[in-house]
User: Fold this.
Amino acid sequence: MKIIAFANQKGGVGKTTTAITLAHGLALLGRRVLLVDLDPQGHVAFGLGLEKTPGLYQLICLETPIERVVRFARTNLDILSSDKRTEKVKRQITLSDFRENILDDLLRSTHYDVVLLDMAPSLDVLHINGLVASDWVIIPTRLDALAVDGVKEILLTMGEVAQRGHIFQGYGVLPTFFDRTTRETLVQFKEIVRTFNTRVWPPIPQDTRVREASAYGKTLWEYSPDSPAMTGFTENKMNLGGYRQILERMMEVLNG
Amino acid sequence: MAERKQKYERRQVLDSAVADLLSNMEQKQIEAQLPRREREKKARERIKIQSRREQRATYDLPPTLRQRVKEMAEQERLPASQLVTLALLRFLQDYQGGKVDLADYKQSSHSPRYDWNLSLPEELLSVLSQKQRRRSAPKLLKEDS
Assistant:
């Protein structure tokens, strides 16, 4: 099993959309996937057209067995959803012994091939729990100075977690909402390539279909499988970026 | 003499899609800063390159065959592409007319991608080693005869 977190301390960078799209993509490829929502906003369930439920609260505060709190979302894809009661989970974890490993211990006992964690844009005990559980971290970022600063912040936090003995197998920086017509995009893109080099993954084009898909409670694979966010930019008959290409990168990560 | 320590640097390889996209965006930005005339010229060149892309194909050929086509094109003062187009069309004509039977050349392949390989007979390959026949120039004037 591999656990992959989608994290950026800046909000609105596309963490949830990326997590949902890749989770469903992996499920369509036959992997058994669990998508865990660590954000009290509960947007994972919403994005998949399901009701928000206090799954994480039931798991950690009420100690309900995990197989009873996960919900079927799509074939091969289950979710552990969140709602505002997830705030109580943070208090519960703070009061627990070995508090940083609670999530890791619970998730490692499951039968899934892949567990994806949609992290909240905050730095709290649940966030640290998510990072401690993760083998890999994908950091979606918009190409603006504030979001890029968020990338640096999450890397600092990962550094602190690593200093406590946790080993990350890798991380990738994923540019999202990519609008290649603006000069600022190029400036920021060059900056992150210069800083993170091989860690930069091909970008996801800005695409209004993404917003429409979540409004309908559908994934991009269902709503617009051939939209730019999925297929990327076309240059010289090649597709550059887009979630289909990112899914290939994910498979490389999963296959080691 | 003290041995100089050679410094090795680990090569960083960007994700190919990231590298392509970055280079295209940089190229477009450079073009955007050019004067209008040069911008238009670049745009025309790009359209020309794009339109020719449809006509391009890559095949592996024996180097001697490639060289022979090149020499023939130079001798006849023709574009090599047109010469190859003619050769392929003539081949297709012969193939469709039953003059060429691929079964004569087929040998089973070990490749998972193909069932067959073509084994070219020596007599056909010997065409490449034969000296090129120079066609006599057309007689244009009375004195030529």
In short: The domain at 2-254 of chain A is CATH 3.40.50.300 (Rossmann fold). Chain A is about 45% helix and 15% strand.
